[in-house]
């Protein structure tokens, strides 16, 4: 496959995202006033609770089998490594460039979480249908590509709605605390400026009376200290244990909440239905008695990508006006996503292939490498909206990373196919 052909294949999906994002940006302007901030917030909740779970279940239940799950065992490891190395590199960026504290989670999230969903479903099968594709028969290649992409999307969902979800939730809590502290500081009057000679006299008289009362109780205090010290120590110790127990319960509750997020639950159910033949036969196929359920779920899932992309475009308008990220941070995220991570991915996948961990199918190895080369997951934007943190900055990061994605995906795809075939 020639360079320019591959360039068009890799560019078209990203251009589609940019065009739909532009529409969302137009709808969010004051001229139309349709995708206002409150509308985007409620739309995000629908995407999180309904559309994303539907898309994941419909894709997995149809295309993934038990044999696939067993033979593709390295894919979850590979995706985990993209999050691991991306998170480490993002943490280094945060420590060196020191963005605002509530934006640290966003920077790490965009460095570690790639768009393992819609872009994989569009880009990889499209390559199979191009003339001169190095991956063999177009029809067989396309079926395999959809299966790889669906499995990748589901696995990415597990990591995104646990690890990345936790990062963004923590940043949201921190941001709310910062805002509350700022509001509290703004409401506290300046006592030094408000003081007058009369109030100062009253304060002095009050302090003198307090000194007299303290002197009268000095003798009784020394006696009571000995008897009161033991109960106080016991109370403090008991309170500390209760505090640690409550903290442990809170952490456990948070983990359960993240693992039971709607997209994660839908992915688990999709795996179960896809890997269990009799369950799959109930909803998949022309003769399935409950095929209307799968059709309805698929119809809902089809709304995920356009809704998320419209929201992304709507957020772009606010991000261009109010984004507070320094250009150096944006450049660092681009370097992590499109230079460092792909180079790491090539080394890891080639090493795994030489050790015999991978299927000999070159398309499978190509997919594993592409997983290191994707722009940030759009679900990060959904989480930024849900937790009301870094929404403007997230929009700016998306704008630049998706603009660069066209060239980066094309260049690395060419290199991947060259070394694999």
Automatic annotation (TrEMBL):
GO cellular component: endoplasmic reticulum membrane
Transmembrane segments: 6-34, 46-64, 70-94, 106-127, 147-168, 328-351, 363-384, 396-419
Keyword terms, alphabetized: Auxin signaling pathway, Membrane, Transmembrane, Transmembrane helix, Transport
Topology relative to the membrane: Multi-pass membrane protein
Domain of life per record: Eukaryota
GO BP of this protein: auxin-activated signaling pathway; endoplasmic reticulum to cytosol auxin transport
Predominant localisation class: endoplasmic reticulum
Cell compartments where the protein resides: Endoplasmic reticulum membrane
One Pfam family it belongs to: Mem_trans
Function of the protein: Involved in cellular auxin homeostasis by regulating auxin metabolism. Regulates intracellular auxin accumulation at the endoplasmic reticulum and thus auxin availability for nuclear auxin signaling.
Family the UniProt entry places it in: Belongs to the auxin efflux carrier (TC 2.A.69.2) family.
Protein name as annotated: Auxin efflux carrier
